[in-house]
Specification:
CATH architecture of one domain in chain B: 2-Layer Sandwich
Strand order of the largest sheet of chain A: 3-4-8-6-7
CATH architecture of the largest domain in chain A: 2-Layer Sandwich
Helix content of chain A: 25-40%
CATH topology of the largest domain in chain A: Uridine Diphospho-n-acetylenolpyruvylglucosamine Reductase, domain 3
Number of domains of chain A: 3
Number of strands of chain B: 18
Oligomer: heterodimer
Strand content of chain B: 15-25%
Distance between the termini of chain B: 30 Å
Number of helices of chain A: 14
Chain lengths: 385, 481
């Protein structure tokens, strides 16, 4: 395993590499096959380099544990706006989630629909491209349009365009939340409940659906705000089901950790997909369409815009379901489905990422060839050969 | 400022090029008469002018594709143009270029409140996007000062911000998908009505690429429900340092105002004379606005006023009525116009870490004295996006050049303290030659490789963003070879 301790060492290691590298932070959210190259771990490049609460800015080395970042922010009453998940339980990994891994995956939890994904909070990166060149883009200020935005390009590129060495974020004040459950609101009623919630002026910061329970909505803010807004939402939604409110901040947070980390699927076997679509397409078209394919279990987040799907079956049926799920996304309005959890034997047979339209795919592969001309960074991921 | 020498072979082929363009567009949509092309010789950076070879005004994605295909085949540079409000010269033509104006692409294609999206053609103005949804109490969040005139196409090209982006983000955070036409004339969909990308974030890359990667003809934008209400408070201080500290303390306290605007003494004096907003006589003035129900606003402003009082303000004024709120905003909104009444000015938009505010304001004062040019500051303090206005006399020989040097010094200072050259206006031609202050050659090379992929012939919006010397080899290379 390669484990450079500095950006300069990282640059040397990449430049000197003679074969494929498998870039990992803590390895807790990696997807795709696991034996695609020599492991290049960023865990030795760790530490918060700058944190200015008054400027809502934090800069950290890519291998910094996510928990260290979140603890530092919590001490000042702040947070990463995009609420990254801890995927260890779902994916059956141990290891330490890193902030660089969060960026590589463009992670985003329930607050995404209101506050954006990792890509929206990421304001600067330093990285080493496939030739070993040290590059930077963006910076440490929250408004920056100087040159092209390679920051966005790096977010969610799964280490295939460069190896992150440092990442900078815009952070937000952390506010206590309360949760409202519309008991029994599922299917069309769930969509109605989330639509009413997110199109209200009450700044709903989480909207999830758990089959068998109902629709959960979250409000975060100053104490007076939370009480007022929960009251207003209760009036708005009571015809859709019995309303149960969790005002205790810790209990409310636990509900959203469960949704964020897809805890319901942790103990349950089978393959897991993450699907992003327009909410009405997801609920009215996609979910009915895949019900024809197999007995999928699902959880909805992002007001119906995100689905976690689970399906049990042998390798052949999971492979077939994977292709069918991705086709159903395309046929029912578009978006993307990614295979997050599956046996190694399945992952080897498929592209876990949603295939892109030919014109877009040509651009993506063109970029990859420019940033990693030797094709050594995480080959096998993101449509790479 | 240097621009590339126009390609004589293109100038010589003008009539053929115009004829081909007229073959795919209505006659009125191709402008080539030399007196008429003058209307497109510059954008809002009026110091630089150059009439283009021709102007085309397509009305559909198909027409844009047809135009680009012809220009690609003829090897003619294309300068995409929204409404021409760029302060950075983002739509400045070259004599051998075709201006592709999106003004006739102004339709709303779809409004979908359940999914909180609107799909528009990109020639539509920023404010008219909100106009299309406000009857249902929705709005489109990015609000650049030029929002009455500026087009969504230009907003996407420059990743425009506005006064309210501390809370709602800038264009890139509110853009879900685009229809883009490549220089070769291929139409592609990037993103959509869903969130995030399943592959590389090409949408994030296109937003802010200053029209150099493709021509965006349609956009899916996020719309939001309007808050129940909003109310500003005005706080005056006797020093910039204290005002800066107050901004920092407000942010640390956990309230996230929708806007924190900052005006310094030079701006206050000019604005007060012009707009008579009744601002206090002070060194620095903050306008802080929060949103919500009346009770929520009371709670937030209560906290903000408490913080402000701990900094001994010379004045603290909360709007009790809509009219008072209007008066608080009046001076801020008239500031640019007021400065324009007393002088010619250049507006910069470097961004700095909020913590460096006092140091940078002091530095600007020194630079202003060094050049003997008055500089006023009015800006979005919450996110550190400065707007120094350098005042000069365009009729005085040498004054523009002096102003540009003064501006360059200020922007270098912004970069030195950890900031950047431009927070929301874009690089254009204006800051092109300063890119080396912020980026290494390798950093710029990485960005230019992106353009190599999207526009291998380097025909889209030439001579912008990158220093001419840095991009020369690419611009002059014969792609066919």
């Amino acid at each position: 395993m390669l484990s450079p301790a500095s950006e300069a060492e990282l640059s040397e290691v990449v430049a000197a590499a003679s074969g494929p590298l498998r870039v990992v932070g803590g390895g807790t959210r990696s997807i795709g096959a696991s034996d695609t190259g020599e492991v290049l771990s960023l865990s030795a490049m760790s530490g918060i380099e700058l944190y200015e609460p008054g400027a809502l800015t934090l800069v950290a080395k890519a291998g910094t544990p996510l928990a260290e970042v979140e603890d530092a922010l919590a001490k000042e009453g702040q947070m990463l706006p995009f609420e990254p998940a801890d995927m260890r339980a779902l994916l059956g990994r141990d290891g330490v989630p890193t902030i660089g891994g969060v960026v590589a995956a463009n992670a985003a939890g329930p607050r995404r629909m209101m506050a954006g994904a990792c890509r929206d909070a990421l304001i600067g990166v330093r990285f080493v491209d496939g030739a070993g060149t040290v590059l930077k883009n963006g910076g440490r200020v929250m408004k920056n349009v100087t040159g092209y935005d390679l920051v966005k390009l790096m977010a969610g590129s799964w280490g295939t365009l460069g190896v992150l060495s440092e990442v900078a974020f815009k952070v937000l004040p952390r506010l206590d939340g309360a949760t409202l459950l519309v008991r029994g609101a599922e299917g069309a009623d769930a969509l109605e409940a989330t639509v009413r919630g997110v199109t209200s002026p009450f700044e709903v910061s989480g909207a999830a659906v758990v089959p068998g329970e109902g629709t959960y909505l979250r409000i975060e803010g100053l104490e007076t705000s939370v009480a007022y807004r929960i009251g207003k939402l209760t009036d708005l939604l009571r015809d859709l089901g019995e309303i149960e409110v969790t005002f205790d901040a810790n209990a409310s947070a636990a509900i959203w950790t469960r949704i964020r980390d897809v805890t319901d699927f942790t103990e349950a076997p089978g393959a897991v997909w993450r699907v992003s679509m327009k909410p009405t397409d997801m609920v009215d078209r996609f979910l009915p369409a895949i019900a024809e394919i197999g007995a999928f279990d699902h959880r909805l987040d992002w007001a119906g815009g995100l689905a976690w799907l689970r399906l049990e079956g042998d390798d052949a049926s999971i492979v077939a379901a994977h292709h069918a799920v991705q086709a159903a996304v395309t046929e029912n309005g578009g978006g993307h489905a990614t295979l997050f959890r599956a046996p190694e034997s399945v992952v080897r047979q498929v592209d876990v990422f949603q295939p892109e339209a030919p014109g877009v795919a040509a651009l993506s592969q063109g970029l990859r060839a420019k940033f990693d001309p030797r094709g050594i960074l995480n080959p096998g991921l993101m449509g790479g050969a | 400022m240097e621009m590339p020498t126009p390609d004589a072979s293109i100038l010589a082929r003008k009539s053929r090029i115009v004829e081909r363009l007229t073959g795919v567009l209505p006659k009125t949509a191709v402008i080539h008469d030399e007196t008429e092309t003058r209307a497109y010789e510059c954008d809002a950076l009026t110091a630089y002018k150059c009439p283009p070879l021709a102007v085309v005004l397509p009305a559909s994605t198909e027409e844009v594709a047809a135009v680009l295909k012809i220009c690609f085949e003829e090897g003619v540079p294309v300068v995409p143009r929204g409404s021409g409000t760029s302060l950075a010269g983002g739509a400045l033509p070259t004599a051998d270029s075709v201006i592709l104006g999106v003004a006739r692409l102004n339709q709303v294609l779809e409004t979908d409140y359940d999914n909180r999206i609107i799909r528009v053609q990109t020639g539509r103005t920023n404010l008219s996007v909100t106009g299309a949804v406000e009857a249902e109490d929705f709005f489109y969040a990015p609000d650049p000062s030029s929002q009455l005139a500026c087009a969504i196409a230009g907003n996407i090209a420059m990743n425009s911000g506005g006064a309210h982006c501390l809370k709602y983000g800038v264009t890139t955070n509110n853009l879900l998908g685009v229809t883009m036409v490549s220089m070769e004339g291929d139409v592609m969909e990037i993103g959509g009505a869903h969130l995030d990308s399943g592959g590389y974030d090409l949408l994030g890359l296109i937003c802010g690429s200053e029209g150099q990667l493709g021509v965006v003809t349609e956009a899916t934008l996020r719309i939001l429900r309007k808050p129940e209400g909003a109310r500003p408070v005005l706080i005056g201080f006797d020093s910039n340092e204290v005002a800066g500290a107050c901004v920092s303390d407000i942010i640390k306290a956990g309230v996230l105002p929708v806007a924190i605007e900052f005006m310094d003494r030079p701006i206050l004096e000019i604005t007060e004379k012009h707009a008579k907003a009744g601002y206090p006589d002070c060194e620095a003035l903050l306008i802080v606005e929060v949103e919500g129900s009346p009770e929520e606003i009371d709670a937030q402003l209560g906290l903000i006023k408490q913080i402000a009082r701990s900094h001994n303000p010379v004045e603290l004024r909360e709007a009790e009525t809509a009219e008072e709120a209007g008066r608080i905003w009046l001076g801020r909104k008239s500031a640019f116009g007021a400065v324009g009444q007393v002088a010619d000015y250049m507006c910069l938009d470097g961004t700095i870490p909020v913590s460096e505010l006092p140091r940078v304001l002091k530095g600007i004062e020194e630079i202003s004295a060094k050049y003997g040019l008055k500089v006023g500051n009015v800006f979005h303090a919450g996110d550190g996006n400065m707007h120094p206005l350098i005042m000069f006399d365009a009729n005085k020989p040498g004054d523009l050049e002096l102003c540009e040097q003064c501006g360059a010094d200020i922007l270098r200072l912004c970069v030195e303290v950890g900031g950047c050259l431009t927070g929301e206006h874009g690089v254009g031609v204006e800051k092109r030659d300063l890119m080396g202050a912020q980026f290494t050659e390798a950093d710029m090379e990485a960005q230019m490789k992106v353009k190599d992929v999207f526009d291998p012939a380097w025909l889209l919006n030439p001579a912008k963003v990158f220093p001419l010397e840095t991009s020369r080899a690419r611009r002059e290379r014969d792609v066919a070879a």
